[in-house]
Amino acid sequence: MATTYLSRTSGTSTNVDKCTFSAWIKRGNLTASGHILMGQYTDVNNRGKITFTDDYLTYFQKTGGSTTANVVTTRKFRDTSGWYNVVIAFDSTQGTEADRIKFYVNGVQETAFSSTDYSQNENVRINESSVPIVIGQDGNSGFYFDGSMSYVAFVDGTAELPGIFGETDSTTGEWKIKTTITPSVAWGNNGFLILKNGNSLTDESTNSNNFTLGGGTLTKTEDNPSNVFATLNPLVNPAGDTTSLSNGNNTYTNQNYNYNTRSTLGMTSGKFYWEQKVNNATSVKVGLCTSQYDPSLDTDNAGAYYGGVGGGGVYVLMQNSTTNWQRTNNNTSKNIDTYTNAIASTSSSILMGAVDVDAGKLWVGVDGVWMYSGNPATGANAQITFTNSSPDELQIMASHGDNSTPRSTQWNFGNGYFGTTAVSSAGTNASGIGIFEYDVPTGYTALSTKGLNL
């Protein structure tokens, strides 16, 4: 949602002092400003917002020019690899200040705050009557939420417990989504449930409080609270890095080949497939690294797989030679592979990667064709055979080989999108997990929580 927001005008509140907000969210670019989940803005003196401020979960509002609420957790929320269920229950009639706003994250109440200011019997501005309500922004600042949202719900008239929106899995003990939401009393006049099924803005509560797209592009992602997909990790970049991530951390821009990033999820066994669409990069690495890999280490000198802290990675460096893509074999002596793949090289090429973790084999392809007549399904003609000597989990590495200008690639770990553009013709996928441009080799799947547990 980097520049995307949703809006509607509220009706008459059932109870302006009591309401509950709930959403499942996956954070994206942590350096972006604002990170507003829901907001209301009448003017500078009358406004309210739920936001991550410097990674602290916060509710802030002003009424008549005075700050009437400022509640801030002491805990930071910086996980970009999974989904949070954020529930905020409001009841300004409570005599104890700390009871007027209750924050719950993944079913657990937050109890440590740097500020708990909230005036008694003060209207909750995001539940005011006949005012603009915005999801993903506050309606004025331009500070957008960066990431993904699902099951965005609002209950007007009651301060709900988190068990309305989620429950503890009896097997894993993890907090999981409830796909049927039934408020303890009723949804109330301003209640709504959106983004329940894909990117639908149709209210699926008992009301008809539909939202409209206020700006930006609202894309549908396969990544969801029940099946978390890998993205690129914004937390591993060292100081001085030029890397930037966008579009849910699936668009990678970098100008220094000494700096790299990697996937949020790792693999200790199994067979996995992914795609990288080239925007303007002339030299792209398709490969793997360890979970303890130093992101400031350039792996040009690593021809084998090395484990341990500061360990290396393995990759195929794909060079754009204007007329075709050629493979550079980066081993310890930096030999150049003379093979030139007879596939046209364009700025919109889609590079494919497949890894058999157990066999220690990596394949690379271009635009639906595996190089060297490789066949991941049968295990034939892998581009790289490696040994994980740690053993340590493997992660998919994102890196360019060009140092001249900012270069960009768009990654599809199964979300079905390159940036904000959906794949043009989804290939076959026997696992049924993820959507890709090309056929997923038999026996392979997307790098996701369900894919890891096949």
Describe this structure in a few short sentences.
The protein is mainly beta and 454 residues long. The chain contains 1 helix and 31 strands. The two termini are 31 Å apart.
Textual characterization of the structure:
Helices cover 1% and strands 37% of the residues. It has one helix spanning 449-452, and strands at 5-9, 18-27, 36-43, 46-53, 56-63, 66-76, 84-91, 101-105, 108-109, 113-118, 132-135, 147-156, 166-168, 175-177, 192-194, 212-215, 244-246, 251-254, 261-262, 271-278, 283-290, 313-320, 325-328, 350-356, 361-366, 369-370, 384-385, 394-400, 407-412, 417-418, 421-422. It has two domains: 5-215, Jelly Rolls (Sandwich); 244-452, Jelly Rolls (Sandwich). It has 454 residues and is mainly beta. Residues 297-311 and 329-342 have low confidence and may be disordered. Strand 25 and strand 26 form a beta hairpin.
Secondary structure blueprint with pairings:
Blueprint: E1 5-9, E2 18-27, E3 36-43, E4 46-53, E5 56-63, E6 66-76, E7 84-91, E8 101-105, E9 108-109, E10 113-118, E11 132-135, E12 147-156, E13 166-168, E14 175-177, E15 192-194, E16 212-215, E17 244-246, E18 251-254, E19 261-262, E20 271-278, E21 283-290, E22 313-320, E23 325-328, E24 350-356, E25 361-366, E26 369-370, E27 384-385, E28 394-400, E29 407-412, E30 417-418, E31 421-422, H1 449-452
Antiparallel strand pairs: 1-11, 1-16, 2-7, 2-12, 3-4, 3-11, 4-5, 5-6, 6-10, 7-8, 8-9, 12-15, 13-14, 17-18, 18-29, 19-28, 20-24, 20-29, 21-22, 21-28, 22-23, 24-25, 25-26, 25-27, 30-31
